[in-house]
């Protein structure tokens, strides 16, 4: 029985959503039951948290922000992700614990070990089987976002220095756990990235 938990990480504008969709479609073609989800926003509770942390007009203190993400994560894993995994399904998720460590830890300059510990407690120590990190220079990522003419959320509106710290945080996490992470240059074409991701995932399927 397949039981696989795959997460996608990286800064805003790197193409995570596209690769999540392509991987899910490929797995379904192979007969897998796939749950595609995201954080925050993977549940009804998560949608409310997402609106608060990404679009709240006032300030949110860094520690409060970290706790809001952890609360969403606890509910998301307990009600959606873990049940799917227990059924033997494949879960593909856009952002997880590593995003909190990178954004609230490195980006907000909180203690990264404490942020990770908080999320592990919230999820009862659920760690992904594979994490795909799409890495891209902050300036190129910003150009992609700007070209889409989208309205930036609270995190996307942060200064370049913040996003550079976030990128460094992600790369540090990948360096510390090379067996879990697959780091890909997000400047590659959509097709090249998708092929590399499939090659990483295929050996793990039953």
Automatic annotation (TrEMBL):
Keywords: ATP-binding, Kinase, Nucleotide biosynthesis, Nucleotide-binding, Transferase
Catalytic activity: dTMP + ATP = dTDP + ADP
Protein EC: 2.7.4.9
Cellular component, GO, one term: cytosol
Binding sites annotated in the UniProt record for ATP: 10-17
Ranges where the Thymidylate kinase-like domain occurs: 8-197
Enzyme class: transferase
A biological process from GO: dTTP biosynthetic process
Extent of the signal sequence: none
Gene Ontology MF term list: ATP binding; dTMP kinase activity
Family the entry assigns: Belongs to the thymidylate kinase family.
NCBIfam families per record: DTMP_kinase
Record-linked PANTHER family: THYMIDYLATE KINASE, UMP-CMP KINASE 2, MITOCHONDRIAL
Function noted in UniProt: Phosphorylation of dTMP to form dTDP in both de novo and salvage pathways of dTTP synthesis.
Protein name: Thymidylate kinase
Originating gene: tmk
């Amino acid at each position: 029985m397949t039981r696989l938990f795959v997460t996608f990480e990286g800064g805003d504008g790197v193409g995570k959503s596209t690769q999540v969709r392509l991987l899910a479609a490929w797995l379904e073609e192979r007969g897998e039951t796939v749950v595609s989800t995201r954080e925050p926003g993977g549940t009804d509770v998560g949608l409310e948290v997402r609106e608060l942390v990404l679009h709240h007009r006032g300030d949110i203190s860094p520690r409060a922000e970290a706790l809001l993400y952890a609360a969403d994560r606890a509910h998301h894993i307990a009600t959606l992700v873990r049940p799917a995994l227990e059924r033997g399904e494949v879960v593909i998720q856009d952002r997880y614990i590593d995003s909190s460590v990178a954004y609230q830890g490195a980006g907000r300059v909180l203690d990264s070990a404490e942020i990770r510990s908080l999320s592990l407690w919230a999820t009862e120590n659920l760690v992904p089987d594979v994490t795909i990190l799409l890495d891209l220079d902050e300036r190129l990522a910003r150009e992609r976002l700007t070209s889409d003419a989208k309205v930036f959320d609270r995190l996307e509106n942060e200064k370049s220095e913040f996003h550079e710290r976030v990128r460094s945080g992600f790369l540090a996490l990948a360096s510390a756990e090379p067996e879990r992470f697959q780091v890909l240059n997000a400047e590659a074409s959509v097709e090249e990235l998708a092929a590399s991701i499939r090659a990483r995932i295929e050996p793990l399927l039953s």
